[in-house]
Amino acid sequence: LFPGVRQAQWLTKTKLVEGLPPAVQGIMENPAHGLQELEERAKHAVSHARLWGTAEVAPRREQYCPVLFENLIHICRLMSGKYPSLSKRMLARNCRIAATWERESILLQVRGLSGILMNSMSPIPPVASKEEILATKEHVLETFYPIAPTIDLQEVNVYKELNDTGRCFGDGYPYSHPHTLFFLESANVRTDRFRPEQLRAKMLMFAFGNALAKAKALHGNDPKVLEQPVVVQSVGTDGQLFQFMVFQLNTTDLVSNDGVKNLVWVDSDQNLYEKAQCVPEVKKGVVTKPAGISGFQPDTFKKFLALYLHGTV
């Protein structure tokens, strides 16, 4: 999406709120959860991915980005000893999504691989109150006139209007609720990776697509304001810079700009660490910069962990 999140907002009839919602912030700030006790493990996770996990002098992004993700997920799973309901989760890879909706007079579809999808046996509760949802009626969506809001979308012939959560949510599948999408932008060449703004737009579109397909599976295809909104989270990273997102689908009535809007909370461009010095820098036989990780940001790790815990604690 060329204009990025602003275009995705129009396509999904969504109001953006800067920062993470209070429900997630509360998890981060509550000392009872003991998030700070895992900071040292998170530092080791970064060092393992960037410095120790390979025989190469400097690991490539396509290697260390997935390793870092797996390391962080492992740390999150350690919390299941304290919160047993966390064991009722499942990671699904290469899971396809298809969701179709009408916006003004345009038929739209989001379709493709959903990144790595964490499913849960129970849904994330709504993060916005009914009053906050009703207040979105006053929000005016940005337009791009004279540019069409679909300017850079691929135009195809649609023979079947699909709303399909893919093989991940077949009949009888116990982990039937989408919880968090993870997008790893691990291409080693910068031009092959999504820019942060593009990545956030992709995160929003696929969170919306998963929420819409789930809502239609639960409530049918008739456009309506949902009594029980559907919440889907997204996390995107290139192995250093993180994007965090919480999306709440309040309505499947998407044709007009009037009425209740959907909501998305976005926390952008959060570094987990500033620099990884893979080999020491030596000048005239003296080590001027030792190998190691510098500028570790514990709050970024806590946000990752808080989103994992969200819906359970």
From TrEMBL:
Pfam families: PDCD9 (PF07147). GO terms for biological process: translation. InterPro entries: mtLSU_mL37, Ribosomal_mL37/mL65. GO terms for molecular function: structural constituent of ribosome. It is found in: Mitochondrion. Keywords: Mitochondrion, Ribonucleoprotein, Ribosomal protein, Transit peptide. Its main location: mitochondrion. GO terms for cellular component: mitochondrion; ribonucleoprotein complex; ribosome. Belongs to the mitochondrion-specific ribosomal protein mL37 family. This is Large ribosomal subunit protein mL37.
